Amino acid sequence: MTETSAPEHSTEPGTQASEFDLSDPAFITDPAAGERWLGGPRPVCPGKFADGSPIWVATGYQDVRKVLSEPTLRSRPPGDSHRESMLSRGIPEDIVDMFDSTLLTMDGEDHMRVRRLVTRALSARRMQTLTPAINRVAHRLLDDLAAKPEPDLIADYAHPLAIIVICELLGVDEDYREQWREWSETLAAALRPNPEQFAPAVRGMARVTRELIEARQAEPRDDLISELVQIHEQDSERLTDDELVALAMVLVQAGHETVRNLIALGVFTLLQHPDQLQLLKDDPSVAGRAVAELVRHTAPVKHTFRRFATEPVEIGGVTVQPGEAIQVVLAAANRDPEEFDQPERLDLTREHNPHLGFGRGAHYCLGASLALIEGEVALNALFERFPDLELAADPAEIAPRYLLSMQRLPVRLSPVPTTCPVTG
What we know:
The chain is an alpha+beta fold. It has 18 helices and 9 strands. The strands form 3 sheets. It has a 5-stranded mixed beta sheet, covered by helices on one side. It has a two-stranded antiparallel sheet with strand order 5-6.
C-alpha cells in the first residue's frame, strides 16, 4: 500500500464503507463481524466511530505498535471538539473538566506528571506482594461457589474477585463496592451510553470518590488513595483536585473491568480447548505464560481510544492528516500472522508472545502487572479446586460478542453422571 493509497482504500476517512463500523449495532452484537475483522486483511483503512464520525483503523501488528508509540498522535482532538464530544456522549457539563482530567485523555508532560505519581504504587514488585491476599480472596469465593450446583462464574467469581482486589488496594469501603459495580457497568457502555443512566453514574462515582478522599484526609490508611491524598496535600500543583478524583475513578473502573473480562474469557476459552486446559492442570507453574497467551488470544480489551494527529503522520502507507483520528484494534494486532506463528491457535506454551493486550508506549496499562497476577491466581485456584469444571450452557449461547463483555458463564463444578449408580 502506497502513501497515495491502494485502489480498494480511500485516502480520506469515512469516504468508503468499512467493516469496522462502531456506529453499527450489529458490529458489536454479531460475533461473526468481529471474527471476520480479526482474521481479515490488515491494512490501515477507513472506518466509523460510535458517533458515526470518520476514523482510520489500524489492525496490523507493526502499524498498531507505531500508533501506540507515536508522540504526534494525541488523546484529545484539536480545539473545543473534545469537550463537545464528551457532552454529546452524556457526560454532565458540571463535571466535564474533572472527566477530562484522566490519564486516558492526557498527553505529554501532564500525563507523565500524573502517571509517575501512581506508577511506583502499582509497580510489578509491589503487585507481587499482593499474591497471598489475592489467593485468600479467591479461595473465599470458591468456598461460596461450592455451595451452588450451577454457579455463574462471572457473577460469583470473576467479578467479585476483581472488584474486591482493586477496592482493597485503593481503599474503597466495602459498603460502596456493589454500587460501584453498577456504575462501572454503565460507564463500560460508553460507546453508546444511555444519557438517563450515564450522567447519574458519573455524578455518583465522582461524589463517592470525593467522600472517600475527604475521609482519607481526615484519617489516612495504608491504601493507595491515602498515598495520593498525601501527595496532593504536599503539593497540589503535582496533583489537582480534579485529577485526584479522576485518577481514583479510573483506577477502580479499569482495575476491575479488565480483570473480570480476562478471567471470564480465560475460563470460557480454556473449556473450549481441553488439551490446553490439561497443560495448566498438570503444571500450575505455566500459569504466567498461560495468562499472557489468554490475553493475546481472547483480548479482554479489544481496542484503544482514538488518537488524533497533530501533524501529518504516515501509518501503514496512509497519511493521517492533522485533526484526523486513528484507532487501533489490539485484538486484531494480536492475531497478525506476520508476528505470531499460527495466531488463531491457543498455545499456553507459546514462547514468542510480544502481545499488545495492555497497549504500549506512554499509555501502557498501569495495572497490567496486577491483572496478570490476578489471572494466574484465579485460574490456578479455580481448576485446582474444581478440576472437573464444565460449562452448563451451550457455548454458542454465551459466547462473547466482539465488544460486549460476557454477560454470564454458567458452570457445573462436577460432570453430570452419565449412568445411574447401583444402589442396594
